[in-house]
Design brief:
7 strands, Nuclear Transport Factor 2, Chain: A, seven-stranded mixed sheet, alpha+beta
Length: 151
């Protein structure tokens, strides 16, 4: 229940941020939508490869996420867990994604099927996820994330 509540709260915060920063209607620019979907694929690919440098580029320095435990995690913690081997994404496949772009802010959510180990335990399965991105300079970076495992 805590996980569902955390995901719902995250979605509300994202919606509030998007509407507060977006005086215009959502963009339907397919090149931007495609770039954001590619960002999601690149994020997963970097996790599988353990490419900390690429993840450092994809995640904003101030990135935070609501973890499955309901705790807030930082970029530093995620990178440390990957480097130590505590977190290992072995394989993933993204499902359909929905992207909304409001100027320099975007929200993207979808599903992902993962084969993953956390602290030696199999946590594989189907997950729902949502990322909030901001365009900083010429680059879209993920600033907030949340997800939950589908039971």
């Amino acid at each position: 229940m805590k996980k569902l509540l955390a995901a719902a709260l995250f979605a509300c915060v994202c919606a509030g941020l998007v509407s507060a920063n977006a005086p215009e209607a959502p963009s339907k620019d397919s090149s931007v939508v495609d770039a954001l979907k590619q960002n999601a694929q690149d994020h997963g690919d970097a996790l599988v490869a353990g490419d900390l440098d690429r993840l450092d580029q994809i995640l904003a320095d101030d990135w935070k996420a609501v973890a499955l435990s309901g705790r807030i995690v930082t970029k530093e913690a995620v990178l440390a867990n990957l480097k130590s081997g505590k977190d290992k994404l072995e394989w993933f496949q993204l499902g359909p994604m929905d992207v909304q772009v409001f100027g320099n802010v975007a929200a993207i959510h979808g599903t992902v099927t993962e084969k993953r180990r956390w602290d030696g335990k199999d946590v594989s399965g189907l997950y729902l996820w949502m990322d909030l991105l901001e365009k900083r300079g010429d680059t879209w970076v993920i600033v907030r994330s949340a997800g939950t495992k589908v039971k």
